[in-house]
Design brief:
The complex is a heterodimer of chains A (199) and B (237). Chain A has 199 residues and is mainly beta. Chain A has one domain: Oxidoreductase, molybdopterin-binding domain (Sulfite Oxidase, Chain A, domain 2). Chain A is built from 3 helices and 11 strands. In chain A, the strands form 2 sheets. In chain A, strands 1, 4, 5, 8, 9 and 10 form a 6-stranded mixed sheet that branches. In chain A, strand 8 and strand 9 form a beta hairpin. The longest helix of chain A is centred in the first third of the chain and has 6 residues. Chain A is globular. By secondary structure, chain B is of the alpha/beta class. The longest helix of chain B has 14 residues. Chain B has a 6-stranded antiparallel sheet with strand order 4-3-6-1-2-5. Chain B has a 5-stranded parallel sheet with strand order 9-8-7-10-11, with helices on both faces. Classes of the chains: A mainly beta (199), B alpha/beta (237). At the A-B interface, helix 3 of A face strand 3, strand 4, strand 6, helix 5 and strand 11 of B. Chain A: It holds the Pfam family Oxidored_molyb.
């Protein structure tokens, strides 16, 4: 237990709500990004998977949204301390996109329109843990929340769920992405409170 | 572990808290800290606050705006006593920062209490004796909501190369010659820098404000990579 703050009681949520340590519950959907929101034309939108030997596989908007999709209901946890429960998404499982890709990679760098990057272990993107999401709450994903499509990896802090995603780069060795270079954790498990490098 | 050494009133709903943090490693203007409060039964919660002061030994200043119905800000503004200990972690963030070695001119656009990390940059510029030209555009609801009003007036006089333009969204001072309302492209274009100068742009405020201003800067022709944003204030605003 930390230093007790004299006279602080705090506001407990309903006791049955389980949040990761240090998080508080919000019913809004806050926006967090490092720069302007890019506006992306669906006609020129592409999603590209690149392997460690430079092989590419790509999808147009039409092709991606024609793939079998899933409805997803998950809690999300932002490193800036808010959590939002039971959010509804629709998207294509990442494993569908990687199904025919031959790779020995253990890590992935997600790349976004606008230049954002974030790194993840490949195994965290497989087995029903990650999607390319293009709908939120039954409507097209708004640009400020990452539309037209974002990576959705709800079991990690939400900066790993790259907004405006345009591709996945498979890598043999881990490399830090945008926030990871700026001092945030390479893995980012909210339940172990891995906010910053060294946590 | 830090100790509150002083609390200074800024407005009816905001105050600056001065903390002594032994072995503070120093920080860059724009960085923030995490504050963790723990109740007697072990319940704890955390929030992030931008640092308002430039690096200065073991002392840091945070300016805290009261969040209506908030869990943490009312405690920091009224409950925490001078001399009380508190858990502070930081500095955090390596993106929304200004370095006095950066050669580019700077435009700062603040909405409400989003001025806090930008004020750290203005103060750090003076402390470093920097000659980098700074322009601050500061949008507030009413004159009474303005943080650092007296200091900004003095700095515009004394800090060579600092220009400040104000905007009022609800209510302006009686003799105000301009419009009252949300920041417009014309205001940003007039009081910021032209894109040809490749300025570093820092925008901080509530989400709607930041989205609107970042869009204006991009529309004006600024390179999106030169526009750094930070959302501020309670979630959902």
């Amino acid at each position: 237990m930390g230093i007790v703050s004299p006279g602080f009681f705090g506001r407990r949520g309903s006791g049955d709500t389980k949040l990761p340590p240090g998080q508080y519950l919000t019913h809004d959907f806050p926006v967090l990004s490092a720069g302007p929101t890019p506006r992306i034309d669906l006609d020129s939108w592409q999603f590209v998977v690149t392997t460690e030997i430079g092989q590419r596989k790509q999808w147009s908007w039409q092709e991606l949204t024609s793939l079998p999709s899933e409805d997803i209901t998950k809690d999300i946890h932002c490193v800036t301390k808010w959590s939002k429960l039971g959010t509804h998404w629709k998207g294509v499982p990442v494993e569908t996109l990687l199904a025919d890709v031959e790779t020995a990679a253990d890590y992935v760098m997600a790349h976004s329109y606008g230049g954002y990057t974030t790194n993840l272990p490949l195994e965290d993107l497989l087995n029903g843990q990650a999607w390319i999401a293009y709908q939120y709450d039954g409507a097209p994903l708004p640009p400020e929340h990452g539309g037209p499509a974002r990576l959705l990896v709800p079991h990690l802090y939400f900066w790993k769920s790259a907004k405006w995603v345009r591709g996945l780069e498979l890598m043999l060795a881990d490399e830090p992405g945008f926030w990871e270079t700026a001092g945030y954790h390479d893995y980012g498990d909210p339940w172990r409170e891995q906010r910053y490098q060294g946590d | 572990m830090a100790t509150l050494t002083e609390r200074r009133r800024e407005t009816d709903s905001a105050a600056t808290l001065v903390f002594d943090v032994p072995d503070w490693p120093g920080h860059l203007p724009g960085q923030h800290v995490d504050i963790k409060l723990t109740a007697e039964d072990g319940y704890s919660t955390e929030r992030s606050y931008s640092i308002a002061s430039p690096a200065e030994g073991d002392r840091i200043e945070l300016t805290i705006q009261r969040v209506h119905d908030g869990e943490v800000s009312p405690y920091l503004l009224e409950g925490l006593g001078v001399g009380d200990p508190i858990e502070i972690r930081g500095p955090i963030g390596g993106w929304f920062v200004w370095r006095d070695t950066d050669p580019d001119p700077v435009v700062l656009v603040a909405g409400g209490s989003g001025v806090v990390p930008l004020m750290a940059m203005v103060r750090a510029r003076k402390a470093a004796g920097s000659r980098i030209p700074f322009r601050l555009i500061y949008s507030v609801r009413t004159p009474e909501d303005m943080l650092y009003a007296n200091e900004l007036r003095a700095r515009v006089r004394d800090d060579m190369g600092l220009d400040i333009a104000y905007a009022y969204t609800r209510e302006a001072p009686p003799d105000w010659p301009g419009e009252v309302g949300r920041l417009k492209l014309a205001t940003v274009a007039t009081h910021g820098w032209p894109p040809d100068l490749m300025p570093a742009c820092f925008v901080c405020g509530p989400t709607g404000f930041v989205e609107a201003v970042a869009d204006i800067l991009v529309a004006q022709g600024h390179d999106p990579r030169k526009v750094k944003t930070e959302r501020f204030g309670p979630t959902g605003t």
